[in-house]
Amino acid sequence: MNIPDKVINRLTMYHFILDDIREDEKYISSTKFANLLNIDNSQVRKDLKYIDNQDGYRGKCRVGYEVLKLKNKIEECLGFKKTKDVFIVGAGNLGSALAKYDSFQDYGLNVLAMFDKDPKKIGTVINGKEVFDISRVGNLAQRLGVETAILTVPKEYAQGAANYLAGSGIKYIWNFTTCILDVPKDVKVWNENLIGSFLQFTNGNKEK
Fold it and tell me: What is the domain range of residue 127?
């Protein structure tokens, strides 16, 4: 099923809420989701129809959605249970922080290793992930079957790193840099716009 990016983003937020309350509450209403996320109740119901349409699952009238069942449905719909192995390219502050974010594993994202070109970082271990010389990306990607890389290098090195990744067999790049990458058509890029998200927040804009 083709789910819009904005809906996927909200479904993950619903999952965060469900994960927090699963031990305390059996049901949750669309109104509670809406109040916690400061969005319209109707938007929540529209989003959850993507889950409903999978196999006819519905919330109960005047009761709401069964917490554990909805949590599992979102996991199935978004593929949380299918592990995706990834590399982190750039072992600076941001790359190191992402490597230390253990909750990635709860959503099927498994960081296998990190890469950098700084001799002082190569050979170090960050949260159990060894930092390799970037020249080894291609060999390890092929051996381990990794097609996805998280790019966290400084902006001035981003395009060069992306060129190297594309030439090494990487097909998906999660780009945390502020550089708009120029890559071959068979390489997909997702730009994580941290600055844009911050400006939306400070300007009071609500994503619908």
Answer: 84-195
Q: Per-residue b/e over 178-203, b at no fewer than 16 CB within 10 Å? A: ebebebeeebeeebeeeeeeeeeeee
Domain co-membership, 183 together with 164: yes
122 and 57: one domain? Answer: no
Q: What is the pTM of this model?
A: 0.80
Q: Are residues 189 and 98 in the same domain?
A: yes
Q: In b/e form, how buried is each residue of 81-94, taking b as 16+ CB within 10 angstroms?
A: eeeebbbbbbbeeb
- pLDDT, tens digit (0-9, with 9 covering 90-100), for 30-42: 999 999 999 999 9
The list of the chain residues with pLDDT below 50 reads 56, 207-208
Long-range contacts of 129-134 (CB under 8 A, 24+ apart): 129/88, 129/99, 131/91, 134/89, 134/161, 134/164
**Do the strands 27-28 and 65-66 form a parallel or antiparallel pair, or are they unpaired?**
antiparallel
Which of 76, 96, 117 marks a domain boundary? 76
Residue from 141, 144, 180, 191 nearest 164 by CA: 141
